[in-house]
Write a structure and sequence with these properties.
Keywords: 4Fe-4S, Carbohydrate metabolism, Gluconate utilization, Iron, Iron-sulfur, Lyase, Metal-binding. This protein has helices at residues 5-17, 19-32, 44-51, 56-64, 89-99, 115-118, 127-141, 159-168, 189-200, 206-216, 228-238, 254-269, 280-283, 286-299, 305-315, 322-329, 346-351, 354-364, 458-465, 482-485, 494-502, 562-567, 587-592, and strands at 69-74, 103-109, 149-153, 175-177, 386-391, 394-399, 424-428, 431-435, 446-454, 473-477, 507-511, 523-529, 546-550, 555-558. It is of the alpha/beta class.
Length: 607
């Protein structure tokens, strides 16, 4: 199909804007290539350290410098349900590599904190910066000149962007991402949300709430809502970095095991030792980044990626801005309704046609780049319209659905849920912000109400308990940006705001912090830039100021006389009233971090 002219124009703009940094980055990637393994350049002592614990034939193969050695970077821990299955991956991946005449070693581990555990807690102030720590840890894992390609084991929120940024720092190495799959369906997300709202209103006990949460998050595998973790998987497929249709195959199944082995085979085929060298740094170009953004918009994915994929792009020498997200949202329709944008979970999304159906629709409409390089030999993105199957114990890919198998969950380009993509870029005298319009019903997208200003999100719940909140209001939660306190998510406010909205009250949220990728229902302007701690306009908002938030008109304004507003002294944040809990360790990150619209990066990336 012919590429949509506007998509081609946006891609060309990114390419031209990025010409110099991208050229420097690609030159560095090319200079690092070697026809023989880098470990062949190590001294004998260095190399002996690198294979000292290898067993049997593995030791000889690594020492021989003629066969690929794969570095496994793992985010395994037992606290994250999504990452718990990775405990048993290294032996299986090593066995799969041996069967192909190659070797594999765990190169290193990366930290993997869970936003689901830290929501509303002090630990959330470390969450966003964990992405940059993961990137650094990935670079450390790959720094030994021992590997010819990398297998990345990670799924959740900051972990995949961190792995991707770190891997791009070693962009001459091919990389394959290996998902673990979602847990099977549990308590429907809509029912869980209803219990949360009743608890916020004192109508449900803690025991009832815990039982509902436990019935929802009940086994190994990714949480089943369409938040940042599952958005990660769709975006990786859209970039051709993860095997087609592999994202939402449940853990512990024969198909999951076959896909894991196929990921090893894919990595061994694309090293510099063969004729099909596909370094990660070359694969992640402006077309792949545009495909990722298109997939995000078409599926109503996580708002966190408006930060993460700006950062990922920069790690590859590419400059992407929120204006690019906005321009793409105007031509990319919303094709999926998955919680919080609907009632379905990702298992039902996959059964309805999933990524193969969505990608086929977008490709046929000229809304994705088919001609990108991918981890498969000679295959562009059209290969990602196929689904994996086991036939007589053998892994094959078959054509995915050509029509939606569940129109409540996925639809085609000709009959979308919304002609506009899932995100809105808001502008006005309060700065720039983002809104997730796909998760908000049309009747709740425009809120015109007085401000209730708090500098600590927990204050809003206290005001509710005291009966001090006006009937309609816009909650302004400021000093939550990256420089202020690491840009924590404000998901813990949603049960209260959702409850008030259910009562017929007009409510919204405006914050320079983030909102969970699992959040929806209530109109919100998030990632407000510039942030309040830097003297941004939010620091001048006062209780009672009339605010207008309109997700359809892309507007965020304080209706205050211009001279009055300009003459106000910006408020200053109060010293943290809670325990440090590691916060001081990230003081340099807060000092050096870039604004949200530049990726909220606290490390140097790219060429």
């Amino acid at each position: 199909m012919t590429l949509h002219p506007r998509l081609a124009e946006i891609t060309a703009t990114i390419r031209e804007r990025s010409r110099e940094p991208r050229a420097r980055y690609l030159a560095a990637v090319a200079a690092a290539r070697g026809r023989t393994p880098h470990r062949g350049r190590l001294s004998c002592g260095n190399l002996a350290h690198g294979f000292a614990v290898a067993e049997g034939e593995d030791k000889a193969r690594i020492a021989g410098n003629a066969t690929p050695n794969l570095g496994i970077v793992t985010a395994f821990n037992e606290m994250l349900s999504a990452h718990a299955p990775y405990e048993h991956y290294p032996p299986r991946l090593r066995a799969a590599a041996r069967a192909l005449g190659a070797t594999a070693q765990v190169a290193g581990g990366v930290p993997a904190m869970c936003d689901g555990v830290t929501q509303g807690r002090d630990g959330m102030e470390l969450s966003l910066f964990s992405r940059d720590v993961i990137a650094q840890a990935t670079a450390i894992a790959l720094s030994h000149d021992m590997f010819d390609a990398a297998l990345h084991l990670g799924i959740c929120d900051k972990i995949v962007p961190g792995l991707l940024i770190g891997a791009l720092g070693f962009g001459y190495l091919p990389s394959v991402f290996v998902p673990g799959g979602p847990m099977p369906p549990g308590l429907p997300n809509k029912e869980k949300q209803a219990v949360r709202e009743r608890y916020a209103n004192g109508q449900a006990s803690r025991e009832e709430l815990l039982a509902a949460e436990a019935a929802s998050y009940h086994s190994a595998g990714t949480c089943t809502f369409y938040g940042t973790a599952n958005s990660n998987q769709v975006l990786l497929e859209a970039m051709g970095l993860q095997l087609p249709g592999s994202s939402f195959v449940n853990p512990g199944t024969p198909l999951r095991a076959a896909l894991d082995e196929a990921a090893v085979a894919a990595a061994t085929r694309i090293t510099a030792l063969g004729e099909d060298w596909k370094p990660l740094g070359r694969l992640v170009d402006e077309r792949a980044i545009v495909n990722a953004i298109v997939a995000l918009l078409a599926t109503g994915g996580s708002t966190n990626h408006t930060i993460h994929f700006v950062a990922v792009a920069r790690a590859a020498g590419l400059i992407v801005d929120w204006e690019d997200f906005d321009a793409l949202a105007r031509i990319v329709p919303l094709l999926a309704r998955v919680y919080p944008n609907g009632d379905a979970d990702v298992n039902r999304f996959d059964a309805a046609g999933g990524t193969p159906f969505v990608f086929r629709e977008l490709l046929d409409a000229g809304l994705m780049h088919e001609d990108i390089e991918t981890i498969l030999p000679g295959e562009g993105l059209r290969a990602w319209t196929r689904e994996p199957r086991l036939v007589d114990g053998r892994l094959v890919w078959v054509d995915g659905a050509h029509e939606s198998l569940d129109r409540e969950v996925v639809r085609g380009v000709a009959d979308p849920f919304d002609p506009h993509g899932g995100l809105s870029l808001l502008r006005g005298n309060l700065g720039r912000a983002l809104g997730k319009r796909s998760a908000v019903k049309p009747e709740h997208r425009r809120i015109h109400a007085p401000a209730v200003v708090v500098d600590d999100p927990r204050t809003l719940n206290l005001l509710h308990q005291q009966g001090a909140l006006p009937p309609d209001f816009v909650a302004v939660v400021r000093f939550q940006g990256p420089r202020a306190n690491g840009m924590p998510e404000q998901h813990s406010l949603l049960p209260l705001l959702g409850l008030l909205q259910n009562q017929g009250r007009r409510v919204a949220l405006v914050t320079d912090g983030r909102l969970s990728g699992a959040s929806g229902k209530v109109a919100a302007a998030i990632h407000v830039t510039p942030e309040a701690v830097d003297g941004g306009p939010l620091a001048k908002v006062r209780d009672g100021d009339l605010l207008l938030l309109d997700l359809d008109a892309d507007v965020l304004v304080a209706e205050v006389d211009e001279a009055t507003f300009a003459g106000r002294e910006p408020a200053r944040p109060h010293p943290a009233a809670h325990a440090d809990l590691g916060r001081s360790l990230f003081a340099l990150n807060r000092l050096n971090v870039t604004p949200a619209d530049q990726g909220a990066l606290s490390i140097s990336v790219g060429a």
